[in-house]
């Protein structure tokens, strides 16, 4: 089987790497890129150390996220009648003052409230979420691990979750919910 790391076709350093993670580190640094060194380092540590390193993963850029409006748009007359829920519905009456945009009335959502294209769907950490169901889908993020983070889908079993979290640590991909379902399974 071929080694997981490939640098200009030179596999000797990885095939003959020392047993302990600290010996021969300077040789690895001089021969390989920082990403390969990080992968080697991650593979040689315990589980709690891996999660600490995964938490330290940072995005390439972290622009300031500006929300033009944080309040929800509420439905016209939802404050007046209990039967009318507050979920937004566009008023369609011929005389409706909200639809006609009279001064002092509720505001309607429109295209101007949209988020900046660069920060749309961005988490406060600076990553964008990508839903993952298996390891094959996780490996799609290998080249874009500085802009996207993985979120394990809710219907993935705890056995497969462990495998996905381990593989994400090897690929240096941040997982938003690495402990979901795993902690509750251990407590039972």
Automatic annotation (TrEMBL):
A GO cellular component entry from the record: cytosolic large ribosomal subunit
Pfam families: Ribosomal_L32e (PF01655)
Matching SUPFAM superfamilies: Ribosomal protein L32e
A GO MF label: structural constituent of ribosome
Record InterPro entries: Ribosomal_eL32 (IPR001515), Ribosomal_eL32_CS (IPR018263), Ribosomal_eL32_sf (IPR036351)
Disordered, as annotated region: 1-25
Keywords: Ribonucleoprotein, Ribosomal protein
Domain of life per record: Eukaryota
Entry keyword Mitochondrion: no
One GO BP annotation of this record: translation
Similarity-based family: Belongs to the eukaryotic ribosomal protein eL32 family.
Protein name, entry field: 60S ribosomal protein L32
Organism name: Silurus meridionalis
């Amino acid at each position: 089987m071929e080694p997981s790391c490939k640098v200009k076709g030179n596999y000797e350093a990885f095939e003959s790497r020392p047993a302990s993670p600290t010996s021969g580190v300077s040789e690895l640094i001089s021969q390989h890129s920082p990403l390969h060194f990080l992968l080697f380092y991650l593979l040689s540590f315990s589980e709690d150390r891996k999660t600490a390193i995964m938490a330290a993963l940072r995005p390439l850029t972290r622009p300031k996220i500006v929300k033009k409006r944080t309040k929800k748009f509420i439905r016209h007359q939802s404050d007046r009648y209990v039967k009318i829920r507050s979920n937004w519905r566009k008023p369609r009456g011929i005389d409706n003052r909200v639809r006609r945009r009279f001064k002092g009335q509720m505001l309607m959502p429109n295209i101007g409230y949209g988020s900046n294209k660069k920060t749309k769907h961005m988490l406060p950490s600076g990553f964008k979420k990508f839903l993952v169901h298996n390891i094959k889908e996780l490996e799609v993020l290998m080249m874009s691990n500085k802009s996207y983070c993985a979120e394990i889908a809710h219907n993935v079993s705890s056995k497969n979750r462990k495998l996905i979290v381990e593989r994400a640590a090897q690929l240096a991909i941040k997982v938003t919910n690495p402990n979901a379902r795993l902690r509750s399974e251990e407590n039972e």
